[in-house]
Amino acid sequence: MQKIDRLGWAAGTSFVSYGRRIGVRVSDPQVLPQIMDLLPPGRAASPSPVVRRLYSIFVGGDGARAGVRRLHLAYANSLRIARTPDLQAALDAFESDVRLYVAERARRRVFVHAGVVGWRGRAIVIPGRSFSGKSSLVAALVRAGATYYSDEYAVFDERGRVHSFLSPLSLRNQDAQRPPKYRAESLGRPPGGKRLTVGLVAVSEYRPGARWRPRHLTPGQGILALLANTVPARERPAAALAALKQAVGHAPVVLQGTRGEAAEVADLLLEKIG
């Protein structure tokens, strides 16, 4: 446990996310609104200054003196997670770390690296790590009429139902060094909030020019595919396995294959689950 000591710090906040109390303090109050936009979905403000994880973000000086580098620092407890002249890079490191911490330590929830959309009362879950193409497939499904739930984590409860983890979609392109982010509403659909049972699990990887010819997996293979992308698989293996068994037990379809363009595959997935 740590306490948000604001002595020498300009501003700070504390919140609870999935049962974990987290604090943030900053050296420049003007940065706090940006940080608030980066906090994990599903959080609630906490009046207590006592936290389990404390983030400290130091904003460097103006760098006006010759030969002086302006460095921004970010710490998670005593561990330095960023030291960079780019403030946005420091904030990106904070965002990534705080979300991963919540995913690892969440109470009564199991986080899986996956995109999720809703379709006719059921969830399509697309497990995969970064650069596997899951965000572009999620965006294509939303444009095709599905409801956005997440492009980062599928959040399962003990009964295998999927909950939303709403944050802007990060869609990479070749021209941008930092992926632009889009809210679900900009794709033509409001985000979802109702928990869903799983209707389809699509294990896919993007390859330019590939044709989507998936093979059907058994429920056991589907569980293993999800488990390979489960964040607390080592810390809480029993809870993770139990939740995924429940999830795949409700899923009539589990597919795996290499895909080409997301728009083409999106229509086929909606047709399959429909």
Summarize the structure.
This protein starts with a strand and ends with a helix.
What does this structure look like?
By secondary structure, the chain is an alpha+beta fold. The chain is 26% helix and 32% strand. It has six helices and 18 strands. Strands 9, 10, 11, 12, 13, 16, 17 and 18 form an eight-stranded mixed beta sheet that branches. The chain has a six-stranded mixed beta sheet with strand order 4-2-3-6-7-8, with helices on one face. A two-stranded antiparallel ribbon has the order 1-5. Strand 7 and strand 8 form a beta hairpin. Helix 3 packs across helix 6 and helix 4 crosses helix 5. The radius of gyration is 20 Å and the shape is globular. The relative contact order is 0.13. The mean pLDDT is 89.
